[in-house]
Amino acid sequence: MTNLIKNNKIYFFIFFFLTFFLFLYGKDIAGLLDAKWIIKYPKHLVFPLAKYLSGFVKWLMDDANFIIFSFRDFTRFIAWIIEIPYNLILALISKGFLSGQGQDAKEILAPLSWMSVIAIIMFMALYTKDKLLVFLVFFAFLYLAIFGQWKSSMVTLSSIVIAVPVGVVIGLFLGILSYKSEILEKIISPVLDLMQTIPVFAYLVPILVMFGFGPVAALIATIIYAMPPMVRTTLLALKNIDPQIKESGLMSGCTKRQLMWRVLIPTSKPTLMIGVNQVIMLSLNMVIIASMIGAGGLGYDVLASLRRLNIGAGIETGVAIVVLAIALDRLSQAFVNIKTERKKINISFLKRYSRIIFLFLFIIIIYFLSTYLPFLKSFPEHLVINTSAFWESLIKYININYFDTLESIKVTLLTYFMLPIKRFLLGVPWPWFVLIISLIGWHYGRLKLAMLCFLLSLFIVFTGLWEKAMVTIYLCGSSVIIASIIGIPLGIWAGISSKANRVLTVIIDTLQTLPSFVYLIPVVMLFRVGDFTAMLAVILYSLAPAVRYTAHGIKNINKEIVDAGLICGCSQRQILLKIKLPLAIPEILLGINQTIMLALSMLVITALVGTRELGQEVYIALTKADIGRGLVAGLCVAFISIIADRIIKSGSDRLKIKYGMK
Amino acid sequence: MSQSSHKENNTPVIKCESVYKIFGNNALNLLENSKGQVDAKKFQEAGCIVGVNNASFGVAKGEMMVVMGLSGSGKSTLLRCISRLTDATAGKIYIDGEDLLAMNSKQLIELRRNKMGMVFQSFALLPHKTVIENIAFPLQVKGTSTKESMSRALEMVELVGLKGRENYFPRELSGGQQQRVGIARSLAVEPDIWFLDEPFSALDPLIRKEMQDEFLRLQGVLKKTIMFVTHDFDEALRLADRIAIMKDGIIEQLDTPDNIVLNPATEYVKKFTEDVPREKVLKIESIMDPYDSNNSSSNEVSKDAIIETLAESILNSKKILTVIDKNDNNKKVGSLDPSKVIKVIFGR
After folding, report:
1. What is the dihedral of CA A345, A346, A350, A355, to 10 degrees?
2. Domain A70-99+106-396, what fold?
3. What CATH number was assigned to the domain covering residues B5-115+191-273?
4. Nearest residue on chain B to A257, judged by CA atoms?
5. What pLDDT digit, counting tens, does each position of A524-535 carry?
6. Is A340 in contact with B169 (Cβ distance < 8 A)?
7. Can you tell me the ipTM of this complex?
8. Which tens digit of pLDDT belongs to each residue from B148-188?
9. Which residues of A164-176 are buried (b: 16+ CB within 10 A; e: fewer)?
10. How far is A253 from chain B (nearest CA, A)?
11. Structural domain boundaries in chain A
12. Reduced to 3 states, what is the DSSP secondary structure of residue B336?
């Protein structure tokens, strides 16, 4: 055994030395051999996959016919299905029902008053019997009204009100289908993997081409983005049901349909609700990104102010998004934890539905009163508080007084940390890199993983995106390194002290509810555009799992092992370093894995602040509506994350098996 | 395998003929090649696991058959073959003379809706339904009206002694109470056949004893045909009319409790019986001598009494007692020498 470890270490050093050598002298060697392709993959050998993909979609849109309808009819049909309920909701809470078009439009029915919307939300919170939550949603929505974000928030809310149910229902059905058919499960599972690793921008492009610019396209993108967790949760929930419950349903004489809808689905409801919560959070995240293809609302406001570098307005809207996200997250989580009350028998209809009747009366009364009292209709404008000037001056103050400090931090990190990594990654010849990745794959997962790593990295080479991919890896890598350096010690702290745990959990939970977009705002304000800014945003976004998994790993160590350590006379320090930390490593690895996944997904969004990696490629494709280019670059990002994911997971699994934890 | 005498009169309610259940892809082929001689080890090498190996027996109307075995012995698998929660690989199973394995899914649903009830180890109650809704569930899926199913469910609630808790949710009940709900649910459709899969194993020992008593009381009233699976030999002895002891999918012995204790058929069965206090299991019948009118007293004992319950009075009487059959007009069927009781208690 010791021999093997020694051997491994020797191999590691040999490979590291060779890599370093090639980094230093690769160019010279290539020059000597007259083989420039070693350094730079020749352009004429690039496989024009992007062109083929674009061509295919063009054919689909222009010529594809399915006997009675064309593909274009099909996309129009889908758009139509989604458009109708969306317009209905939008009219209800934001625009009002209009007759006629454009400026001649007459309002038939005014939209719900801001008071009514708040009342409805509070009613929902009341249903969960969580009094604190009632206050929370009340203040959150009041905030939106007072700070002048009401209109935009309602547009965003309408998208969510449509996207979530559609996403949940489709996800539920796909989950049920893949539970019923193993073949379908085997097809759906990798597709979901890809959908979750492909950067969101990449599929904005085809949707943009197929459905045009506008809220409907944005909604479709949102649904596609938010649905995968629901499929997974449904499948998982159904699989984890105690088989005896299923058998008891069968022995009760259920038909297949009765078994599914009266036994299995209701039994797994608590888990399904977690999936619903995920769909809500992802929808919220996406609704903002989707403002790039035509969703209005808060997302559009942020995007617009970011583009204009309007600091104050950006922060103001950003805070509104955060408030909305926290309110919706807490509300849906409260629905997860809801416990059905023992049924009270013999209460009258009026009493049972007293609250909902009261709510309806309230809405109707407000509606009629609002004709006479305009402040009921929309929040009075003179009471709206505008904070953007405050934010503007705050940022200005920081930038004037701390400019040197901030700048020196930025320059130091760039010169001594980020740039060396970048140079190193770009300097190593690509064939060697592909080889190293495949060898790592072989080490952790033998032939299967090695082949996967080899083929996926070759894809990146052949599509001519190697250098951009290296920049992606460099940015992602340096972010993950810093996120781990910050996150793992915090996690250890949370794992040891329950006080720290409580505080950190609240912070981490909040960080995770924030849409990725929001992280860009403060860093851009302080550090302007560039790689450093991108890295900071990525670190902020991807920090949470590093902390959470580490804390979980440390806390969940078998208590008897720790007791055994204490009896052996370990000091607290020894307990931590010799027992807890080594045993928590598999879990910590999984945390780093999650951090990488989040970092990659955030990295693409940071293309907005001018990075030069795959994300930028996708973003450019989006602005040019170039499907092939966007998809190919998107696939490259997905492949990078799949390689990282598989390698780290196998490493963690191997450790777990070694420690007998699995 | 000797059968107990008086229960053979009518055709068995459940009948199994050479039932096999083998898990694995190639099970059927392997089974055909082996011509009925299944060797678990050889099958395992071929990637198959033998669950039930050539089980043949019948359960008569009103009989309580207990299947006893340790974990992995195939006892639950056997029960699931007979309830067709899993399909037997080979063999025949008849329920009331009808071929179970030939039924289509519609017939199977009908059978379960009307003739079968089952109780599960983990209770398997629906967490989103109240006690009464859980009990009414089999009736509702059958299409019984809400009013009728509720009133029937209420009867069942009373039967299992949960009155006043109809509107509780399962999570608000203790384990023993939850299993009472499970029992009530399984009886709601008034099934003829009652399957119980380790119903009391998840309960702590005191509650288990209480539930066994309750169960015996219920069976005294209901007289169902029962297959009861357990890993607890004492439980099997307490409850069973006949016990089937299983190991590695094979029924090692199928007999009445006394016969199993007195004459264990295999070494494996013997290991279970060794520590069993015989006086707690054996009936007077099993140690009496043939009736001898010359050598008897006026002191009478029932042949079906468990020795332990009468031991003290028998030993105090110091005389030979007359054994009578209470089911047959107190007919005198044997004589009992108290020394035999001493032998049972101390001699081994």
Report:
1. -20
2. MetI-like fold (1.10.3720)
3. 3.40.50.300
4. B141
5. 888 888 889 999
6. yes
7. 0.84
8. 999 999 999 999 989 989 889 998 999 999 999 999 999 99
9. bebbbebbbebbb
10. 5
11. 70-99+106-396, 402-417+466-658
12. strand
